[in-house]
Design the sequence.
């Protein structure tokens, strides 16, 4: 069984990952150059699927695949959401949001829309998923729901709840997890029992929500880990199931759940002055806190 998947290239700094529509393929984005790679659970090496700079894509962060088989890619500071046909790699949509200072970071699909977090504003953009993908519209701004004006919330990971009624959004800067009702746009922090979860990418494995998380532990250094959460009370309360540690040099940013295992992106964004350890990799692990 493959434990690590390798990416070609020495400047990738992978950031996003999502499963393909066939249950075996997965895609990984490169934050530094904007390349997109494709892998298969049965092959240890990924291939370059879309080169750096294609379609003006100078950076690529969070990704997802919609029910129509379109790969949706967050373009980071460019403020552009890209969409590609996974069957032939062709560009099918390219939409730039209307705010100049922006960072489209992560994206999920729920009820005919793609929802993308903006890390420079505590806001979420929404894109209609019809035969053609619609332009982005401001959907919710968490300022006024509990995030103070100017507070560095740094919205990051976003997933749909299991029943599709709400979105769960990680505010990495404040250590909060937000529950946003789709129908009413009511936004409240998830009750974490007084614990902070500085979440990056997130994924459900069965009923357990896995979050790429980090803590300072009082020594001034980030300690990266996966945190397992079990949600109750309509996804408004979470029990911490435990933490699974990673090396700081790996700097996991996000993960996918595919073939019964978690695929964890080792971005190496905090690798230090010595530079990255090549090759860049994605780790495959059993869900440490069950499903």
Sequence:
């Amino acid at each position: 069984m493959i434990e690590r998947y390798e990416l070609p290239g020495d400047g990738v700094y992978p950031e996003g990952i999502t499963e393909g529509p066939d249950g075996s393929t997965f895609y990984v984005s490169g934050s530094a150059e904007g390349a997109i790679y494709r892998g298969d659970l049965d092959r240890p090496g990924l291939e370059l699927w879309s080169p750096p700079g294609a379609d003006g894509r100078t950076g690529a962060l969070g990704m997802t695949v919609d029910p129509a088989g379109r790969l949706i890619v967050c373009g980071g500071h460019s403020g552009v959401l890209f969409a590609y046909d996974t069957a032939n790699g062709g560009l099918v949509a390219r939409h730039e949001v209307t705010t100049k200072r922006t960072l489209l970071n992560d994206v999920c699909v729920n009820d005919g829309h793609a929802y993308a977090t903006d890390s420079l504003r505590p806001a979420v953009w929404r894109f209609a998923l019809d035969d053609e993908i619609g332009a982005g519209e401001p959907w919710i701004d968490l300022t006024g729901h509990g995030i103070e004006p100017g507070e560095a919330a740094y919205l990051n990971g976003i997933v749909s709840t299991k029943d599709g009624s709400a979105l769960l959004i990680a505010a990495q800067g404040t250590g909060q997890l937000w529950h946003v009702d789709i129908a009413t746009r009511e936004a409240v922090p998830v009750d974490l029992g007084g614990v902070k979860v500085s979440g990056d990418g997130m994924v459900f494995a069965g009923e357990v929500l896995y979050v790429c998380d980090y803590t300072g532990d009082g020594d001034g250094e980030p300690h990266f880990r996966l945190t397992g959460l079990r949600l109750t009370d309509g996804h408004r309360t979470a029990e911490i199931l435990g933490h699974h540690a990673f090396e700081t040099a790996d700097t996991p940013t996000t993960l996918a759940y595919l073939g019964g295992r978690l695929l964890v992106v080792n971005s190496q964004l905090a690798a230090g002055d010595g530079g990255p350890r090549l090759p860049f990799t994605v780790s495959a692990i059993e869900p440490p806190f069950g499903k």
